[in-house]
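Hey Z.,

So I finally got round to the 3,4-dihydroxybenzoic acid thing we talked about over coffee. Here's the setup:
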Amino acid sequence: MARITASVYTSHVPAIGAAIDLGKTGEPYWQPVFKGYEFSKQWIRQNRPDVIFLVYNDHATAFSLDMIPTFAIGTAAEFIPADEGFGPRPVPKVIGHPELASHIAHSVIQQDFDLTIVNKMEVDHGLTVPMSLMFGEPVAWPCPVIPFAVNVVQYPVPSGQRCFNLGQAIRKAVASYDEDLNVQIWGTGGMSHQLQGPRAGLINREWDNAWLDQLITDPAAAAKLPHIDYVREAGSEGVELVMWLIARGAMADVAGGKPPRVAHRFYHVPASNTAVGHLILENQ
Ligand code: DHB
Ligand code: FE
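And the result:
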């Protein structure tokens, strides 16, 4: 059977992608950011997934205001990096896993979550920056990826509780797939940041770190936090963090298993306008 072995969490700051693509990772501003991912690159070489279920948000790239799916699962065979205004990032195309994605869609919809099924989609920095942070600059990504896009851009956005519950449904869906696959689930976006309005530039180190503590040890409590707390404490774009609750909800302890092992934890400010947070949790 397929199983979720680990969850990875990371911010997706677009300027990180630009720093990689323009060869600036060694510059004094960026060096401390990338240092936080050295362990992770080593870890993922030793803990190679067969498939990544990658929870991210589209930033009005594949989905405009014309159509706003709350939860969208990518069932295509491949996903091309999008042009977000400066040409597509020079990264490999993403190879999907249509069989597992279709199985998860079937199972999760039967568990009463209304997913949008996406057979054609380009992917933006929300997906490609986490891939670059974990895998560096390979000629091809080392494994298939199932993109799972969450609307955290245009209200109404899903609650933390609904995301956490959805993670539990995804865990069940993966566990009922009849092939021996090592699946990682990634939760991306965050941490505190606000990109517009009078509070643009807001960062809240203390809140971010307390939220990370709670995500690790008591995710059910973290799931209860209303949107307004994210927006007030972590800024308008800090609400991207609800996506981390999908990955956390898919971990074994939430279904009665052992607590995950914290393989890695990293937090750094500044990176563009965003506080960078990163966690790796392993199922035991
Ligand atoms: C920035 C962060 C984001 O999450 C995003 O989607 C766009 C920009 C930033 O920090 O600049
Ligand atoms: Fe974003």
